[in-house]
Every structure is written in C-alpha cells, then in structure tokens.
Amino acid sequence: xxxxxxxxxxxxxxxxxxxKTAGALALAAVLAPRMPVEIISVDSALVYRGMDIGTxxxxxxxxxxxxxxxxxxxxxxxxxxxxxxxxxxTRLIAEIRARGALPLLVGxxxxxxxxxxxxxxxMPAADPAVRERIEAQAAAQxxxxxxxxxxxxxxxxxxxxxxxxxxRIQRALEVWHVSGRPLSSFHSAKDRAPSTVAASTALFSxxxxxxxxxxxxxxxxxxxxxxxxxxxxxxxxxxxxxxHPDLPSMRCVGYRxxxxxxxxHFPMDxxxxxxxxATRQLAKRQITWLRSMPAxxxxxxxxxxxxxxxxxxxxxxxxxxxx
Length: 323
Prior knowledge:
With about 325 residues, the chain is of the alpha/beta class. It has helices at about 20-30, 60-65, 80-100, 110-120, 130-140, 145-155, 155-160, 165-180, 210-225, 230-240, 255-265, 270-290, 305-320, and strands spanning about 10-15, 35-40, 70, 100-105, 120, 190-195, 200-205, 295-300. A six-stranded parallel β-sheet has the order 3-2-4-1-7-8, sandwiched between helices. A two-stranded antiparallel sheet has the order 5-6. α2 (about 60-65) links the parallel β2 (about 35-40) and β3. The protein starts with 8 loop residues before the first strand and ends with a helix.
C-alpha cells in the first residue's frame, strides 16, 4: 500500500525534549506494513554537520532505521534559511510520494513549519558582498550602532529587535540595501508565495499538559549531553578557527552558552543553569507557536500512552484519507 493521494504528508511538531524522534520512529515502524515512510527533518540545528551531541541528533541506528532527509546538509560556517527549507521540503515531499512512500515531517523549528504551511515572504536572497560590508561596519562601530541605523530605515523591524541581536539586524539591513525596501514591508500576505502542501497535510503536535514534566526532561537531556562530551564537541568546532559566535549555527541553544563559558565571559559552573534556562525558553516559544496553529491535533506527550495515542491518531487520519 502506498501513501494516500489526498494526504501528501504527515507533520509531527513539538517543543524540544517532547519525544518527537521516538514518536516518529514508532510511527514509521507501525506504518511499515501499510506503506514505507521517509522522515524530513524540520530542525534548523540538525542541518549542521559536526553538531551531533548538542542538537540531540538521531543516532546512527535511528538514522539507518528509516530514511532521513535534511540532516547534515550544511557546514556550520554556512547558513540555512526558511526559504531554502521550504524549497527543499516541497521537493522532497514530491520525490518521496513518487516513490510510493509517506513523507513524515518531524521537528521543532516552528518558523520552518509556518513557512511551509502559510507560504513565505518573497524576500531577496542573501548577498555575501553586502553582508561582508555590514559585518565590517559592525566590527568598527558595534551592533548597537547598526541597530540605530536600522531604526532610521526600518523602525518597525528595529522595534522588535534587541540592539545586540546581530544576526537579525544584519539580515534586516541586508534586505534594505539589496531591495531598497524595509524588511517589515515584506511581512504581508500579498507578498507570500502560496503553499502547495498546507491544505492536506495533517499536523500532529506533542505538547505537555504539565510544563514541569518538560522542564525535567530538558534538564535530564542537557545533563546527558554534557556527560556524552558536548563540551569536547564545542571545543572541536572552535578549534577549526573559522567559526564565531555570531553564526546561526553557533547561536543554537546550548552551543551559544557552551561557547560563552569556554571562550566568553561566563564561568563554567554557570553553564548547566544557563543552558537549561535557554532551552526552557526555547520550549516556551515553540509551544506558543504551536498554539497559533489551530489545525493541529495535539497529543499530551507527558502521558504514559502518548506514543500509542499518536499512532492511533495518525492511523485514523490516514484511514479517513483513504478512498
């Protein structure tokens, strides 16, 4: 049996540490007798090679159990945008379905999900030369000065960015210089390319009823990362010599805090507390994003039967889509 024609994909979202990988693998195993499954990662950190421990990247056995896509596709020196994700995911969904398999989109980068489902603003592509000029200006004047410049040309965007948010300030100024339009002018429905997969993709989400359960899971996972050699992984990335803390890869939760403790201005004994706190804030933002998606089917991930409930819900949706 192949994937039903009227259900292009299944999407599984959720905050960090909610059990998405385990749920996806369980789904793939249960569905295997009915149809093959291929997983498309929806995670802005898993795209980076050499960043395995701090991203909780699926193990080699897990990656071998089910075909995975959009993992280890970028060097940490290079960025990967939501627009690139939409292009890659849309292509992969079509290719996977052409093989008679079911695409299973799994991850916690809600911006990627939103871009895929709602369409994405047709903003100009990155311009390395312009970006280099902005970085040189920032090195000479500091990011707060560039934030002030952004406030003059795009006050709407500047108002929502902190003066030290180098990554977003840089992108907003880059858009201004390349297009002559403020970044905020692109954020409207009329400028968005329509989504080709949203209407008939079923979205399931793993969300805790008790936030304390998720907080405990986050702490346990961060401790496990430290025990598995996370600091050595960050040291190896630093030793390359071409990476710096303003890169999107090094701004990933956990990596930023570890870099700051190893090479910045924070004591090492504060790393665990800061890393856990940052991860909890990420989870809070992810849950807020999810709650803005009314079409999702929420599964209580802190219940003992969460995996079974997820499998049952997906099977029911697939049966409903069958001719």
